[in-house]
Amino acid sequence: MLPSNGLVNTPSNPQGTLQLRSPRLAHYLDVDGIVMQLDDITLNQAREHQWAESIDRQLARSLRTQLSQELPLIRVVRDDSSQPEALTLRLDVDRFQGRYDGLAVVAGQWQLRNPSDELLAMKSFSAQTVLDEDGYPALVRALNASWEDVARQIADQIRQGNYFN
After folding, report:
1. Is Lipoprotein one of the keywords UniProt gives this record (predicted)?
2. Cβ–Cβ contacts within 10 Å for residue 111, how many?
3. How many structural domains does the chain have?
4. Who contacts 112 (Cβ-Cβ below 8 Å, separation ≥6)?
């Protein structure tokens, strides 16, 4: 399970609301086991090292927590809450895996949409973290660090775009 980084920040007087949809995973990632890239073309799903909870739910929760900390004046909520004036953040995750050269790699694309579902921004994201040591715990920690880096990238780009001003 990805490490938890604290609670979601809920501003008392928010500048706006950001609804976060559950990330859509590439088909090969939507599995129970952690994925390892064994060489430049071979991917392998672990049989022994299984996620304790579906990875899309873990990624959504972690991203919601991280974005609420990075964007303290914005209320960050799940997409299942009724927020008619909220902007919606959608993510497609194309890579979330360990790699043969000792890196944890995360990549994909995000979209920010207004309440009328019109596209405001669309950007790619990528991050990689060197594993401190071999093994499953080190890989999970490195994947989490890469995912936190992605959250910071997205928050920075949302701030720069002034979508809530």
Report:
1. yes
2. 15
3. 1
4. 87, 88, 89, 119, 120, 121, 122, 158, 161, 163
> What range does the domain containing 126 cover?
16-161
Place of tokens 């609301």: 17
pTM listed for this prediction: 0.89
Residue 163's SS3 state is coil
Q: Please tell me the predicted confidence (pLDDT) of residue 7.
A: 55
Domain of 126: which CATH number?
3.40.50.10610
Q: Are 65 and 82 in contact (CB under 8 A)?
A: no
- Determine the Cα–Cα distance for residues 60 and 21; give it in Å rounded to an integer: 7
Structure tokens at 92: 């497609």
In a domain, 11, yes or no: no
Phi and psi at 136, nearest 5°, equal -60, -50
Question: Is residue 51 in a domain?
Answer: yes
